[in-house]
Specification:
The protein has 343 residues and is mostly helical. The protein has three domains: 95 residues, no CATH class; 110 residues; 104 residues, no CATH class. The chain is 79% helix and 0% strand. The protein is flat and about 95 Å long.
Length: 343
């Protein structure tokens, strides 16, 4: 059953890409287990969608149409759930892989300095790489074990190191490995070269931190605009919308129009009070706008501070939740304040 669904929804190339992303994300889960869990979750969500929206779709329908309508509702719910789970899985795998890359880069300089010390002690390059492994290096330790196994089975060390670097979206790691390979092939003083690479990595990381600290002001401005200013302004507009609706509801526009009344500037009262945005519609618009604003602001802050949108994925749920909660809280507070003022 699961194999049939896998062949139905996933092409062979897509399945291989997911397996590769899963392996490099650090998640200790097989592709088959991941797919099985995803199918179960999609099925549960589709049933919940049918339970929630099914009664509304069959209301007032004939007995003959009800089974077909329910089936259509379930199919739509199933595919919507499938898209949601697929997007969430893609985001989680990419974020995990990004975090894994950042963890590797954080200890790369220390690892290379140990490799340089081992080379200076007279070890060959493969042994220097192996004996520099420490438990605190975590990801590098795992990858170097894989490199060591490949070299023991006869694979060229340079090839194994290149494959290791290609597994991660890190220009810092790739440049370091390329320089190391070129130094090995040139046959020069590799210890000094590795030490220089280690210091270059450390200086690059320090420079990134300095740049990140220099743009804190922009991050604060973006965060304030999306998480504080926008929700409060939307809440105020929402309350004004309600008040204007109540005021216009008390005006006898038909009588005023019959008498030929008009506002300053010749604006007829017949143009007021019809076709306006209802409070419920405005509230839905505000919630959607705040959600999108929070989403974009989280991405902007991550790009400004980290240089990658992936770094901001963890902030997106927090930003959206804070913006919406502040809007609802400000709306409730303004309702109380305006009610006390008689509005």
């Amino acid at each position: 059953m699961i194999d049939a669904l896998e062949k139905l929804f996933l092409s062979k190339s897509l399945a291989e890409k997911i397996k590769y992303a899963l392996a490099k994300s650090g998640i200790k889960l097989s592709f088959e287990s991941l797919f099985k869990r995803a199918v179960i979750i999609v099925f549960i969500l589709s049933v919940l969608g049918l339970v929630l929206f099914g009664p509304g779709t069959i209301k007032g329908q004939g007995a003959v149409k009800i089974p077909l309508i329910l089936l259509s509702t379930w199919v739509i719910s199933f595919f919507v759930s499938l898209i949601i789970i697929a997007v969430l899985t893609f985001l989680v795998l990419n974020f995990k892989r990004y975090k894994r890359t950042k963890k590797l880069e954080a200890v790369l300089s220390d690892y290379l300095q140990l490799v340089s010390a081992n080379l200076g002690a007279g070890m060959p390059i493969d042994q220097a790489l192996w004996y520099a492994i420490r438990d605190r290096f975590e990801i590098i330790s795992e990858e170097m074990e894989i490199v060591a196994k490949k070299t023991i089975t006869g694979e060229d060390l340079n090839t194994a190191l290149t494959e290791f670097a290609e597994h991660y979206d890190s220009e810092l790691l790739k440049r370091s490995v390329i320089l190391l390979i070129e130094g090995i092939e040139a046959g020069g003083e590799v210890a000094n070269l590795v030490n220089s690479i280690a210091w270059n990595v450390r200086e690059t990381q320090l420079l990134k931190k300095e740049i990140s600290s220099d743009v804190v002001t922009y991050s604060i401005f973006i965060g304030f605009a999306s998480l504080v200013a926008a929700p409060i302004l939307f809440a105020l507009s929402f309350r004004i919308n309600i008040i204007m609706g109540e005021i216009l509801g008390k005006i006898d526009l038909k009588g005023a129009n019959a008498g030929g009344a008009s506002l300053a500037g010749g604006i007829s009262l017949s143009n007021i009070g019809g076709g306006g945005l209802s409070p419920s519609d405005f509230k839905n618009f505000a919630l959607i706008s705040l959600g999108l604003t929070a989403l974009i602001s989280a991405m902007l802050i991550s790009v400004v501070r980290e240089g990658s949108i992936k770094a901001g994925m963890k902030y997106i749920p927090v930003f959206v939740a804070v913006a919406i909660l502040l809007f609802l809280s400000a709306s409730a507070l303004m309702s109380t304040l305006f009610a006390g003022a008689g509005l």
